[in-house]
Specification:
Helix content: 10-25%
Order of helices and strands: HHEEEEEEEEEEEE
Largest sheet: 7 strands, antiparallel
Radius of gyration: 32 Å
Strand content: 35-45%
Structural class: alpha+beta
Number of helices: 2
Number of strands: 12
CATH architecture of the largest domain: Sandwich
Shape: elongated
Number of domains: 2
CATH topology of the largest domain: Immunoglobulin-like
Distance between the termini: 102 Å
CATH class of the largest domain: Mainly Beta
């Protein structure tokens, strides 16, 4: 008597994608594997090697989905911890990577920079809101790490400039004259925290700076 299977195992060959290019999920994969085993040709049953290979493929898929879920959970936890840390910074005096400097009607204001490596020459430039250079400061502090100083609020001619917001730029060179990737540093009290695109931003002197820009937390001297 001739026996024929309703569906051959070739017709049910397992693939990594479904029709239309959509990804084959864990449940779909397992359902296809069970269906293939039920409908295999009795005259040409699935060989052990093929069955083991398909089980290995399923195991690999299962592990990948598990890793993706753990990664997503880890990202959510990390973001929550960062947000909590940012909220705890409110009211603290900090130095962070930023370029905007506020000058009051009287007195000076702190400006600074950060050097990843030692530099032989460091130059700070301050520009007004029109982009006009008002002050150039040359610093002899070239060791690696953070540095800060007080700008007296005067231009290169010694005249007092108007109160307002100024843009700080820094450039540095090593002993060979090669450029050093220096960072501008601003200081101030964290006035608040805002959350955008799932991330926390510190409000410092009216600037929104990411938590990753934080360089130093310190006690402000009276």
């Amino acid at each position: 008597m001739e026996i024929s299977a309703t569906t051959s195992q070739t017709d049910l060959g397992l693939t990594s994608t479904l029709a239309g290019g959509s990804e084959l999920g864990r449940d779909e994969f397992l359902s296809l594997l069970i269906l293939q085993m039920r409908n295999q040709d009795p005259l040409d049953p699935m060989e052990n090697q093929e069955f083991i290979a398909q089980l290995a493929q399923f195991t690999s898929l299962e592990q990948m989905m598990s890793l993706n879920q753990k990664f997503d959970d880890s990202m959510v936890l990390t973001q929550s911890l960062n947000n909590a840390a940012a909220a705890g910074m409110i009211g603290r005096t900090v130095r962070a990577n930023g370029s905007q400097v506020d000058l009051a009607d009287a007195g000076g204001t702190e400006v600074g920079y950060f050097l990843p490596v030692e530099a032989a020459e460091v130059t700070l430039k301050l520009f007004d809101d029109q982009g006009v250079l008002v002050r150039t400061i040359t610093s002899s502090e070239g060791t690696s790490g953070p540095h800060h100083m007080t700008w007296d609020g005067k231009d290169d001619l010694g005249d007092r400039v108007a109160a307002g917001r100024y843009q700080l730029q820094v450039s540095a060179k090593d002993e060979t004259g090669a450029a050093v990737d220096a960072l501008t540093v601003v200081s101030g009290k964290v006035e608040g925290v805002t959350f955008k695109n799932g991330g926390a931003l510190l409000l410092i002197n009216g600037q929104e700076l990411p938590l990753s820009s934080l360089l130093e937390v310190y006690e402000q001297s009276e």
